[in-house]
Every structure is written in C-alpha cells, then in structure tokens.
C-alpha cells in the first residue's frame, strides 16, 4: 500500500520564491528521502533524513522530519526555473524497500 | 559512462506479445530494482535483487519475470502483454553497504505502450 502522500499535488511559483512541499506517511520508518523527476526522465536522489534526525540541509534544500506527526517537509529556497520538476518523498524501512508518494509537481515561472 | 542504463527507451507492441526490458548498472552496486510508474506518476516497486537473489517480490502478475544474470544486470521479461501494462518502467540500483545503501540510483525509464 502507498506510504507517502505529498501535499500539494501541484505548486506554481515565481523564480526567486521559496517552495515548500509536505509529505505524510503512515508507518514507522528508518529514513525518509526526497527525489526529483524532470519530465520524461528518471528519478534523482536529493536528500535523505534518518528517523533520529529532525532537520537536514543540502545547498538550497532544507528537509524537516517530525516522526511524532509522521510528516516531512522539503523547502527549496530561491527557486529557479530549472527546479521545475516533480518531487517525490519515499520512506525506507528495515529492508531495501522504498515506498514512494504520488509526488508534487512544482512549476517555477521565470 | 551512464550509471544506470535501460534498453529500449521506448517500446510499442501489441497485446499478447512477449517483451523484455534490459537494465545495466556500472556503479558496482549489488542491489537492483524494477519500478512501475503509471499514468498518474505513481511509482510502485515490483522486484528487487541483491547479489542475484530475489529479495522483494511485490504483488505482481506472474506474467512478469525478472532475471539477474549477474550483479550488474537485471532484466524484466513480460509475457502476454495487456493494455494495463502500459507504463514507464524504471530500473534502479543501490550501494552494497553502509549508510549509502538506502539511496537509489534510477535509470532513464522504458516507456511501454501496449496497443
């Protein structure tokens, strides 16, 4: 069954603005990851946050994790047109399996 | 020097046919995966192999049969193709051990259209 649910399903912003996407999940996890998918391409790993971490940064990306609420957020600061893509959260358990959400389609208008 | 490659990129075929999709990775990973992404972009795992051994087998019709001839290859054979098999199929791989194991590297996808 599907684990992650991203919110919103679609987000449209202007270049330079910040974009925030949320992910909720249902069961306990070892880690939560965010991936980006450009149109017609494969997924690219962005960032991983472990269940014992609360916040992580990577360049213009900031991820938070609240295990008590079973939710995570991805913040992209100072967005660029090249950030236009679908963003997926994926939860990892004790095995190799990743369970993906439905994704948020981000459009950054120049 | 592509990390995870898939062939073919596009596959158009008739219902009832049998087809194969090939995946190769040159990252030295020992775990490989097949995912199916439907028209609504929902990505669902189908199979995973670790060192040529099947470790994940989700509820997938037995018309789908993965084969791993070695650690660097994981192929997907589909018998008696149906309209509902139309989707994008992604291969992925992950690192053998340690903290990098959870991160997966995806291929470009194979777009399958069954007519």
* Alpha-carbon Rg of chain A, integer: 13 Å
Order of helices and strands of chain A: EEEEEEEEEEE
Query: If you average the pLDDT of chain B, what whole number results?
Result: 91
Helix content of chain B: under 10%
Globally, the shape of chain A reads: globular
What is the radius of gyration of chain B?
14 Å
Tally of individual helices of chain B:
0
pLDDT < 50 runs, ≥5 residues of chain A:
none
Biggest interface pair, counts? A-B, 24 and 25 residues
Structural class computed from helices and strand pairing of chain B = mainly beta
Distance between the ends of chain B: 34 Å
Quick summary of this structure?
By secondary structure, chain A is mainly β. Chain A contains no helices and 11 strands.
Summary tags:
heterodimer, A: 110 residues, mainly beta, 6-stranded mixed beta sheet, 5-stranded antiparallel beta sheet, 11 strands, 0% helix, 56% strand, B: 115 residues, 7-stranded mixed beta sheet, 4-stranded antiparallel beta sheet
């Amino acid at each position: 069954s599907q684990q992650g649910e991203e919110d919103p399903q679609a987000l449209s912003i202007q270049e330079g603005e910040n974009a925030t996407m949320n992910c909720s999940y249902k069961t306990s996890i070892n880690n939560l990851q965010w991936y980006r998918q450009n149109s017609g391409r494969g997924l690219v790993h962005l960032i991983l946050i472990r269940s014992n971490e609360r916040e992580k940064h990577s360049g213009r990306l900031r991820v938070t994790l609240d295990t008590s609420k079973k939710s995570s957020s991805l913040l992209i600061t100072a967005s660029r047109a090249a950030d236009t893509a679908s963003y997926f959260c994926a939860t990892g358990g004790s095995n190799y399996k990743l369970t993906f959400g439905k994704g948020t389609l981000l459009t950054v208008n120049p | 020097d592509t990390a995870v490659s898939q062939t073919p990129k596009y596959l158009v075929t008739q219902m009832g046919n049998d087809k194969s999709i090939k995946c190769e990775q040159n990252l030295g990973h020992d775990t490989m995966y097949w995912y199916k992404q439907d028209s609504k972009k929902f990505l669902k795992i189908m199979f995973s192999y670790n060192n040529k051994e099947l470790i994940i087998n989700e509820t997938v019709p037995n018309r789908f049969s993965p084969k791993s001839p070695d650690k660097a290859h994981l192929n997907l054979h589909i018998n008696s193709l149906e309209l509902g098999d139309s989707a994008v199929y992604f291969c992925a791989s992950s690192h053998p051990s340690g903290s990098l194991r959870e991160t997966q590297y995806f291929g470009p996808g194979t777009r399958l259209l069954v007519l």
